[in-house]
Amino acid sequence: MAEEPTLVVMRGNSGSGKTTAAREIRRRYGRGCALLEQDHLRRVILREHDSGQIGPVAPAFIAATARTALDLGYHVILEGILHTDRYATALQNLITAHPGPTHVYYLDVSFDETVRRHFRRDEPIPVTADQMRDWYSPRDLLTTPGETVIPESSTFEQTVTTVLHTSGLAARDPLTPCPTVCPHCP
User: Which stretches of sequence are listed as region Disordered (predicted)?
Assistant: First the structure.
């Protein structure tokens, strides 16, 4: 019987580095790993605002998308702010129902550092530091067993390496390595 796919949940405030790290983890892993970005699923696909005031669809949609990818045999990296007040139930249900390995990471970065990182991006989204402050939620842990807190002092390389190795993805074979074999990857 084949091993169940791995579910990796990467959470943290805007500008904490989770999207950049998640993209690199998936790139290094290769094919067979789905990257689900909360911002894309919520803002682009659903065109939904992230507000607890309107009965959001995004938490259930994101969890269902992750479940589908896992059921199809893909490892899943789910990344986003994923505030616990709106996403905890959907995430905990996803985690509980997944029969394979699950690893939850929280990038614990101070507000001032998230602002610095945001404005150093190649293409920062058009928001102000005040808007980022409204979204900022210090140490918004999911409190699932084994949740790993990655401190602000962790470099990009350390974060990527930590997630690849502690999740077990570094030891799992991709469908094809990337970019060595796959001619479509940059």
Answer: 1-22
Type and span of the H or E element at 150? strand 148-151
User: Distances in Å between the alpha carbon of 126 and those of 48, 50, 57, 63, 161?
Assistant: 18, 16, 25, 28, 30
**Radius of gyration from C-alpha coordinates of the chain:** 16
Q: Report the C-alpha gap between 8 and 76 in whole angstroms.
A: 6
Two tokens, residue 2: 């084949």
Distance CA 51, CA 117 (A): 24
Whether this prediction's pTM lies above 0.85 is answered by: yes
In what side-by-side order are the strands of the sheet with 7-12? 33-37, 75-80, 7-12, 102-108, 148-151
The CATH number, out of the four listed (3.90.1150.10, 3.40.50.1460, 3.40.50.300, 3.60.150.10), of the domain defined by the range 7-171: 3.40.50.300
pLDDT in tens, 83-112: 999 999 999 999 999 999 999 999 999 999
Q: For residue 127, how many other CB atoms are within 10 A of its CB?
A: 15
